[in-house]
Amino acid sequence: MQRLDGTDVRAWAHAATAALGVARGRIDALNVFPVADSDTGTNVLLTVSGGADAVAALEGPAGADAVARVFASGALVSARGNSGVIVSQYIEGLAGALPSSAGPAELARALAVAGQEALGAVADPQEGTVLTLARVVADAALHAAASGADLAGVLAAASTRAHTALAQISAQHPVLAAAHVLDAGACALLVLLDALRDVVVRDGAPADAGSDLSWLPEPIDLVAAHVAPEGGGAFEVMMLVRSSGGPGGRADLGPTLLTRMQALGDSVAVVGAEGLWQVHVHTDHPGRAVEAAAVGAREQVVVRLLGARLTDGVPNELGVVACTGSLDLGAAHALAGAVTVVRCDGAALEAHHLVRAITDAGTRRVVVLPGDPSGAHAAREAARSLAPSGTTVDVLDAHDELRVTVAVIALAGAEDAGRRVAGATAALGRLRTTVVEQADLAAALVAVESLLAGVAVGPGAAQRQTLTVLTGPGVDHRLRAALEAEVTQRWPDLAVLGTGPVRGLPAFWLGLD
To answer: What pLDDT was estimated at residue 32?
Structure first.
């Protein structure tokens, strides 16, 4: 092959997805930085496969530059995690530098631009990571092209140098050195680039299952290696931000978004193209992060708790997607182990938003708490589209903030997933609700007493009752605590749960199950 064209880039998107599918488990096992949550391989696979899906939908002939731009755009929208954001920007940089047909020197320059673009996407770039590997790849490719290598020779030289340097690169980072592991992001990028090398060597022939992955350690060898780094936010927040205006008139939101996210957390990455920005941050203040991104229209906003699920959260075999229009409730639902989707700027949730969130839950059975009727419709569409993959999706009748909160609470626990789903469904069916507009303790107690009218509470009751309390901004901590203390004293067998203050709500929103 003398030049890289659009057909080759199409083949690369397919081959990279296949190779990452094989390598995912091994790369996940390497993941100790920036958070040891064992998902780098999965995140990059989902990112690249989203790009490959976009390429597959591209009709008609197109040059290498056009196909690569579609690949990059699909990867940007599908990006997961810090690693996925970086890889999507790497592909974007490559696409922006490729001509319609690329020779050795042009491809080498594109690889160099890709590395620089990936570097610019990260607020705190660190040596010993995927960013270092990208520079090594670029240097090797440029040197090979200058020495007269052909297209295959350029990619072979870059791959060989990267494989040789990978262990030394990873040893530069203190967290990776302490854990004695390779950088997971660097490994993912190397799998991606090896797939391109193989496409060129095969001269565009159909891809097989991918490259030789014997250089990646087996997951079982790494079980004891995971060392969580110090610091970092408790939540991962990802979202898309669209700038207003037509082509050429769209504001560059990247610098503003990068600065605002840096003030709120770490592992910050912001990438964008054609007025669309993917934002990633680890933070203790997810609501503030989503608010800070209000420089454009926000969509596909997802909040997740980093690291392992809480012992009292939702069962590991059951995924929960909780949808909310409240920035304040995003963290509360995520703390229980739910993948939380936050509706912003008056936009309704769409099926593809929920397909992404359901996939992020990482389980074969997922419960969706839609938050409103339009979300329920989108959730049912998402369930139908995922059914062929073997994913079971239960859409519960949780059409407002209180019912979503009640269901999240009911789903938490270590019991069998099926029993939890049945229990949450029953809890929503039994739920009695009332609203207290004024921030007044006496009025709130009257409302509780009204909810309990005719309900057996105590040792003789068929089941223990739970009072869920959402409080608005007019209720301070002391008033909320006073209500909980008074309810506990009057009805000691009544469990009181809830959260607040939640902006946009009345003083008290009460639900009795």
So the answer is: 53
User: One-letter amino acid identity for 453?
Assistant: A
SS3 18: helix
pLDDT at 2 over 90: no
pLDDT digits over 165-218, tens only? Answer: 888 887 776 665 666 667 788 889 999 999 999 999 887 554 454 467 788 776
Do 213 and 197 contact (CB within 8 A), yes or no? no
Q: How confident is the model at residue 24 (pLDDT cuts 50, 70, 90)?
A: confident
Find how far residue 169's CA is from the centre of its chain: 27
Q: Write out pLDDT tens, residues 298-347.
A: 999 999 988 644 434 444 689 999 999 999 999 999 988 899 999 998 88
Q: Which residue has the tokens 């409240």?
A: 326
Query: What pLDDT score does 469 carry?
Result: 94
The answer to whether the beta carbons of residues 499 and 472 sit under 8 Å apart is no
Q: Which residues contact 20 (CB under 8 A, 6 or more apart)?
A: 27, 41, 44, 45, 48, 49, 188, 191, 192, 210
Report the CATH superfamily, name and number, of domain 6-222.
DhaL domain (1.25.40.340)
Q: Give the DSSP letter of residue 433.
A: E
**Tokens 């075999």, located at residue:** 317
CA distance 198 to 177: 31
Using pLDDT thresholds of 50, 70 and 90, give the confidence band for residue 435.
Answer: very high
Exposure b/e, 273-295, CB count within 10 A at least 16 = b: bebbbbbbbbbebbbbbbebbee
**CA–CA separation, 140 vs 159, rounded Å?**
8
Contacts of 28 (CB under 8 A, 6+ apart): 38, 39, 40, 41, 42, 184, 219
Do residues 42 and 24 lie in contact, with contact meaning Cβ atoms separated by under 8 Å?
A: yes
Distance CA 345, CA 330 (A): 15
